[in-house]
Amino acid sequence: MTTYAFPFTSQLPGEPAPEFDLLRTRQPVARVRLPTGDEAWLVTGYEDNRVVLSDVRFSRALTTRPDAPRLQPIPSDPSALVSMDPPDHTRLRRLVQPAFGNRRVAALRPVIERKVEDLIDDLAEEGPPADLVSRLAGPLPIAVICELLGVPARDRNKISGWVGVMLSLTRFPPPQVAGARAELKDYLASLVAAKRDEPADDLLSELIAARDSGGRLSEEELVMMGTTVLAGGFLSTASEIALSFLCLFRHPDQLALLVKCPELLDAAVDELLRYNALTTGGGLLRIATEDVELGGVRIRAGEAVLPAISAANRDPGVFPDAHRFDVTRAENPHLTFGLGLHYCLGARLARSELELALAVTLRKLPRLGPAVPVDRLPVQDGQLIRGLAELPVTW
């Protein structure tokens, strides 16, 4: 059986690599060699991805073992929510889930909308051209997640720097990745100490109270929860916002339709989430706890499995004319936020930020368009999340 080098090279930002289509057709469960030199099974079909994402026989906790196969330069932290299996995962998720529930996100929507309006007003006042990444897509999500968690605004830039290094595949050496994670954890440990003395109305203060009053999480879990929320809470959303505008620029007929018919925004958001290949391929690496038959292949206990969500979201067996971007697409069961136990905790919040970034920007700047040829924008290789370094726009 052929072993393919992974990750594959995307030809354009936001587009999945062509190898995904070939493998989904010819070898839907394929052997790949990861940047670390470890090997894994890459899963490209929609239904097989659903199995990997939801079946308890595919463990996240086993990926934290020192000798476990891994995708990124350093092992996963065992105290991180995303690196846990039940019952520990269930215990911690119950603590933090209300902060990302419908009520809290609904209360945040006016805050998010005002922030987008302020950012776009500032951008419009200075006049075109402008960089939509540094002026909107980047500042919005980090401001929101820091406000939710209780992180001072003055610290946003250094947090952004740490997270960018932490989510590296090959761009930074392992010691630098480990150092960034350690620095972020040290910073949050100091912030926890400060908030113990002066609690506030924020998620970190709530978690401290849960720790100190009932011992429902350890001190390490408390610090790592803050790290996880920051690491997952803004870079992926920032990249999704930038790639969504880029996708609309590449499909001007769909952009014009959305400007003319803003009631299509809900469907457009789902289609953008489905269509954009945000990462190198998809979900979190898992380890099989026992032998499992998947896609005609026997996966042995202890072997790694990587769900390729970007490939699953373009499966023509589920999405008719899957490579066509269509803001009117009705049925759209994409897997962008995952499935099962590890369904993205911040899915509602990320969706609200993307929706409001689009709605406010297109309302205020209905003639928004690219200031450079969009096909010349480079793919961000070497990173787990493939966003955009910049997106020059005019209006």
TrEMBL record:
Keywords: Heme, Iron, Metal-binding, Monooxygenase, Oxidoreductase
Top-level taxonomic group: Bacteria
Signal sequence residues: none
Keyword Metal-binding: yes
UniProt GO molecular function: heme binding; iron ion binding; monooxygenase activity; oxidoreductase activity, acting on paired donors, with incorporation or reduction of molecular oxygen
One Pfam match: p450
Transmembrane portions of the chain: none
Record family assignment: Belongs to the cytochrome P450 family.
Protein name: Cytochrome P450
